[in-house]
Amino acid sequence: MAFKIYTKTGDKGDTGLFGGKRIPKDDLRIEAYGTIDELNAIVGMLADEVTFTTLKELLRLLQHDLFIIGSHLATEPGKSLKLPALPVHRVSAMEEQMDQWDAELPALKNFILPGGHPVISKAHLARCVCRRAERRVISLGRREDVSPDIVIYLNRLSDLFFMLGRKLAHDLQVEEIIWDPKT
Fold first, then answer.
1. In Å, how far are 24, 57, 121, 180 from 173, measured between CA atoms?
2. Domains and CATH numbers, the chain
3. How many CB atoms lie within 10 A of CB 25?
4. Predicted TM-score (pTM) above 0.70
5. How far apart are CA 48 and CA 120, in angstroms?
6. Which residues, other chains included, contact 24 with Cβ-Cβ below 8 Å and sequence gap of 6+?
7. Dihedral over Cα of 48, 121, 36, 99: its sign
């Protein structure tokens, strides 16, 4: 018999965590890993649109990381299930990548507005959703045990998406939109 995607077990507004515990679908834990899932979808759209192979590979790698983070957040607290290790090593790799891009880019002297090209806008959208995911995880961490490595990863990842937007503008030869407070 084929696996069915629908189970009907959530028809009354609850869902199951890895480990078996059922919680309401609007629980902060679901909000946290649901926002990670949303971010992953946006990163997928971004990866579909970039034309530079190295950037596409980086974005696909980040998608795998986000899936790992989501699996940790979707696991019942206190359950010791065999999960992939959190991608803590990626934080320093992201920092190195941002430093490399920063060396290639003009100095940032003003706030910039998202936009100028659809792929740049998607990088900034990923940054915004990443920041929301970070806020959700921080809120969850006030209530339950959450690895601080997840917060560190998400904080650095949002910075990476900002720098990616700048890198894409540079590579596509699109002028960054400078914020003018007098407008």
1. 47, 22, 15, 21
2. 25-75+109-178 (1.20.1200.10)
3. 13
4. yes
5. 13
6. 13, 14, 15, 30
7. positive
Q: What is the pLDDT of residues 97-148, one digit of tens each?
A: 999 999 999 999 999 999 999 999 999 999 999 999 999 999 999 999 999 9
Torsion sign (Cα): 33, 156, 178, 59 = negative
First to last CA, the chain: 62
How far, in Å, CA of 168 to CA of 21, rounded? Answer: 43
